[in-house]
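Entry 14. Ran structure prediction on the chain below.
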Amino acid sequence: MLADAPSDEYDEMARDQVVGALRAELAGVQAFTTEVGPPIGNVAGVVMDVWPEADTVALIERIRSAIRTARGDQALRHSGGRPHISLGYGYGSASSDPLNGELRNKVVPRRATLFVDRVHLLDVAWTLDEELGGWRMSWEPVAEIPLGG
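Output, C-alpha cells:
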C-alpha cells in the first residue's frame, strides 16, 4: 500500500516512478510456487494465509524497497500483516460461525497451489454505496510487472 498520498494525487510521473522502481527491483526475483488456505472467516471478511511464506515475504520486502526508492519512507505506513489473500471483506458485525461452517464443509481441498509470476499495481478505491448500505471496493489496473524481468 502506498500511503503517502491518495491515489488521485499521483500524477502520471509519480506512477511512472513507482512502476519503474518496481520493474528494477523485481527484475531479479524469480517466479515461485506456494500454497494458500484454508479459507477463514473473521471480523474483516474471508482470508487465506500463504504458506510456506518465505518467498512471499521476500517478494513483499522487494516491493517495499521499490516503494521506498520511488516515494520514500512516508509511503510505507502499513506492514500489510501476515501474507494472505483476501476473498472478501466484511462490514458491520455478525457471527462468523455460519460462514466458517460453510467454508469448512464446502471448500475442499483446504489448500490450493499458487504460482506467483507477476505483481499487479492497482489503484484501489473505497466508496460509500448508499444502495448497498456499506462500502464498495473497486480497483483499476495501473501496471503489471513480471517477475524475473
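The mean pLDDT is 91. Will compare against last week's run tomorrow.
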